[in-house]
TrEMBL record:
Residues 6-133 form the Response regulatory domain. InterPro entries: CheY-like_superfamily (IPR011006), Sig_transdc_resp-reg_receiver (IPR001789), TCS_response_regulator (IPR052893). This is Response regulator. Keywords: Phosphoprotein. The modification 4-aspartylphosphate is found at residue 61. It comes from Galbibacter pacificus. It comes from the Bacteria.
Amino acid sequence: MKTINAICLIDDDPITIFSVKKLIEVTKISNCILTFSNGQEALNYYQNTSNEVFPELILLDLNMPIIDGWEFIDAFSQLPISKKALIYILTSSINPEDIQKVKIYNNKYPFSVKHLIKPVTKDKLSALAAIVPSE
């Protein structure tokens, strides 16, 4: 199975962080998991160009304090990043408006924005590993 260099998990729910981290460990799709409880913490990480680890996959919650998922994506797009990243919105919503907004964001920016319906499962993570672009 293909492995992902690093995964960034941005979610303010500690239960989601715990369960997704465990699933990543069980599936062994990555040995490096960075977690942040809001979008601002993650932006601070990505703004630091001296960081040696650049996560190829970002799992992003939408409803968070300080900076929500949409604001994170808008700010992330302004960073001078040359590496490829794939952003998956973690959502329990099947609202057509949310799905349409993901499509708009995917077309708006040079990086991919997709959605992943909660709950996250081993099969869903394994499928993501197969499509994450390699460096």
